[in-house]
Amino acid sequence: MQEDLIEKTALAVFRSNRVVAFTGAGISVESGIPDFRSAGGLWERFDPAEYATIEAFRANPKKVWAMLKEMGTLLENSRPNPAHLALARLEKMGHLRAVITQNIDNLHQEAGNTRVIEYHGSHKKLACLSCGREYAREEVALTALPPLCRCSGVLKPTVVFFGEPIPWGAHLEAMEEARTCQVMLVIGTSAVVSPACDIPVAAKRAGALIVEINLEETPLTRQVSDWILKGSAGRILQSVLDGVAGRSRL
Ligand code: APR
Q1: Contact in structure between 188 and 25 (CB atoms under 8 Å)
Q2: How far is the C-alpha of 83 from the C-alpha of 81, rounded, in Å?
Q3: Is the entire prediction scored with pTM above 0.85?
Q4: Distance 162 CA to ligand 1 centre (A)
Q5: Does 123 participate in catalysis according to the annotation?
Q6: What is the pLDDT of residue 70?
Q7: Rounded CA gap, 145 and 69, in Å?
Q8: 130, 83, 128, 133: which is closest to 105 by C-alpha?
Q9: C-alpha R_g of the chain
Q10: What is the pLDDT of residue 172?
Q11: Among 8, 28, 58, 249, which is 20 to 30 Å from 77 by CA?
C-alpha cells in the first residue's frame, strides 16, 4: 500500500515542473532538533506563553534569551539530514521549484536548496527592537543577555514570535508558489499554526496534488491531503527521490 503511494508520489513529482515543498519542524528532528508539539518537544519544556510570544519577549528578554541561546547552540551544531538532502537533490534535478519552510534552522539552505521561503524568519539574523538595525548572529557575543544594539536597544532574532506579523515578502512569495504549484509535498508539520497552515489549503484550492509526509495524521490529512506517506521524512523522501531518479534514467 505505502509502496504504491510512494510510487504515485514519485511519478507526480517526475511529471511536474511545479513542485513545492512546505516543511515544518518534523523535517529537522532527524538532525537532532526537537520539534514543538510531539512528545518531548520544545513546548513541553518551555511554555510558549512565556517564551514564544512577542509580549513575553518584551516583558522579560533576559529569560527568553536563555532559551534562545540554548536553542541557538543546538541549531549551530545541527546538520542537514537525508530529508533535507533529498529536497536539495530534487531541486538540482529540476523537480522542485521552492521550499516554503516554517523552520528557522537554515538547514534547507545548508543542504543546497537555493529557493527557500522562510515563512517564520531565521535565527541567523538579529534585529534591534529600538532602531531596527540588523546583525548577523555570528557578530553578536551572547555573553551578557539580552544582547544589546549599539544604540542600547534589545536585540531579538528575526524569527516570528506569536503576536508578530509574518514577513510580508515571505507571505506574498509563499502564497504565489502555493497558488501556482501542481504538487505540494507537506512535510513534518502539525498544520495547527495559522497563517502558515493555510498554505497547503491555498494550494489545494488552486488544484494542486497535496501529499503529506508525517509520522502521524494532521488536520490536513482527511480534508486537504490527497494522501499521506506515514513514516520518517528522511526514509520516505529518499524513497521518493529514488523513484524520481529511476524515471529520469529511463
Ligand atoms: N518525520 C516526519 N514527520 C515528523 C518527524 C519525522 N522524523 N518527527 C516529527 N514529525 C511530525 C510530527 O508528527 C508533527 O506533526 O512533524 C510535526 C511537527 O509539528 P510541530 O512540532 O507542531 O512543528 P510545526 O508544525 O513546524 O510548528 C509550526 O509552530 O510553534 C510554532 O513557530 C513554530 O514554526 C513553528 C510552528
Answers
A1: yes
A2: 5
A3: yes
A4: 16
A5: no
A6: 93
A7: 9
A8: 83
A9: 19
A10: 98
A11: 58
